[in-house]
């Protein structure tokens, strides 16, 4: 429920043709403000990198904060929804962990990316679903329950899936210590998410009071991660910005298109296919940035930093287009 937690699925009402609700307005505000916040953070990192280069060791802990807030939003009905539609959730997981890693490998090879950037693009593809995917699905009038289910399970499976996939596809570019990567994902993703779920179960009434603040805590934290990653390789960004942006746009755009196509091929209907598009095309790029910084280099984290901004912009635009099409056909 990759990088980029612009809103929480438990606060988004089910999509429908009726009047737009306050929750809808809050979701739109978050999706609009978050990319701007990340762009501003990246710009600061480029202009004044010397002030933030020492922050890199804090990135895993910052990601842990993001994942803890995600866990706080999960409730028993979310897990029950997974059990009700195991086939559709399984299809979403297979599509996510086949399409995006494969596209990352193909894009890196087709563009002839340097080893560090190629490994970074592939690592983004091997990450679990992005944390903003469920709210973007809601804005697109998609199947929010399916989106939440796929994002949740893909996050819990990340320690088992992301490292071996990265080793398989990125091993030709750089040395990949899959065992150490498993440990890092457990510490920075699984443990914080489980802790958040437990806190929600034990102190749900208190958590409910701060639910609206969680997306903004998460958004600011992700912005700080991007600031740190960008400041750590500001010079390389200036040299390779165009190439990295092209790789990210291709990776994300093809992921959205193929995710939607997979949903249509599986006859999930238009709402289900929209959910599939965002669950496949949007990644937890905060996790990818953290892993790239820890296991590869700041340069390898560049694709994740750019993806953090771009997939929220593209997701919001595609969601608006889908919602408009849905109202036209209604």
Automatic annotation (TrEMBL):
<dbReference type="Pfam" id="PF01758">
    <property type="entry name" value="SBF"/>
</dbReference>
<feature type="transmembrane region" description="Helical">
    <location>
        <begin position="144"/>
        <end position="165"/>
    </location>
</feature>
<keyword id="KW-1133">Transmembrane helix</keyword>
<feature type="transmembrane region" description="Helical">
    <location>
        <begin position="300"/>
        <end position="323"/>
    </location>
</feature>
<dbReference type="InterPro" id="IPR038770">
    <property type="entry name" value="Na+/solute_symporter_sf"/>
</dbReference>
<feature type="transmembrane region" description="Helical">
    <location>
        <begin position="240"/>
        <end position="263"/>
    </location>
</feature>
<feature type="transmembrane region" description="Helical">
    <location>
        <begin position="29"/>
        <end position="52"/>
    </location>
</feature>
<feature type="region of interest" description="Disordered">
    <location>
        <begin position="1"/>
        <end position="23"/>
    </location>
</feature>
<feature type="transmembrane region" description="Helical">
    <location>
        <begin position="117"/>
        <end position="137"/>
    </location>
</feature>
<feature type="transmembrane region" description="Helical">
    <location>
        <begin position="214"/>
        <end position="234"/>
    </location>
</feature>
<dbReference type="InterPro" id="IPR002657">
    <property type="entry name" value="BilAc:Na_symport/Acr3"/>
</dbReference>
<keyword id="KW-0812">Transmembrane</keyword>
<feature type="compositionally biased region" description="Polar residues">
    <location>
        <begin position="1"/>
        <end position="11"/>
    </location>
</feature>
<protein>
    <submittedName>
        <fullName>Membrane transport protein</fullName>
    </submittedName>
</protein>
<dbReference type="GO" id="GO:0016020">
    <property type="term" value="C:membrane"/>
</dbReference>
<dbReference type="InterPro" id="IPR004710">
    <property type="entry name" value="Bilac:Na_transpt"/>
</dbReference>
<feature type="transmembrane region" description="Helical">
    <location>
        <begin position="58"/>
        <end position="75"/>
    </location>
</feature>
<keyword id="KW-0472">Membrane</keyword>
<feature type="transmembrane region" description="Helical">
    <location>
        <begin position="87"/>
        <end position="111"/>
    </location>
</feature>
